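Open question from group meeting: does this chain pack into something compact, or does most of it stay loose? Before anyone orders reagents, we agreed to write out a predicted structure and look at it together. Recording both the input and the output here so the notebook holds the full record.
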Amino acid sequence: MGTFLKANWENIIMANYVIDPEILTPFLPKGVSLDLHNGKAYISLVGFMFKKTKLFNVPIPFFGTFEEINLRFYVLRKEDGITKRGVVFINETIPYRIVAWMANKLYNEHYTVVPTIHSITNDLDSKKVKFEWKLNNSWNSIYVEASNKSTSMKNDTLEKFIYEHYFGYTKIDENNTEEYRLQHPSWKINSVLDTKIDCDFKAMYGESFSVLNYTKPEAVFIAEGSSVKIEWQRVRLKFAV
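Structure tokens returned:
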């Protein structure tokens, strides 16, 4: 029972915003600190396709392919001289209640359920990827047009920083944190040609993130993705009161 979830994550769009670290502080799990890139804290609006989803290596009939939208920021934890770089999710949004219920029940995650749709088209030179989600009778969206040519991420770049965090941290309460590990190869990226973000951050994620309604992303990336595994085993980090 080593692997809890296995799936293909494809066309992973990241719209990346510089954010005041003080906004993120209340959401920090105990035992981790903000991971900064060139002295800046980032938060990312993410859209991607979940495909061929399996739980404990068993396919999920009818619910194995879906869109996910999430908002995440970047943290690190130092343990025995090793730096673990990870992410904290403010919210993860998918269209299926049963999948969200299972994730929330088993792992105290922050999944919510809203209608979602996507459009992915390819021509000879480029692809157009759009993820949409319906909130309060209005459709929000994240869109990218990108080159079909893929390249490896270079070291010491914002792309590498954003995509290559291989741990997840969940705030259980003020003194308890759970740590889990993600496994996937380094992803290929596509050069972004055009992008459009239409998201009501205040309605979706709360007053704390309303500033993003008026903030332009510093950069928008898209990665091709791969098969991803999330381990069943989670480490409960307990800290004294």
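Observations to bring back to the group:
The chain has four helices and 15 strands.
The CA atoms of residues 195 and 208 lie 25 Å apart.
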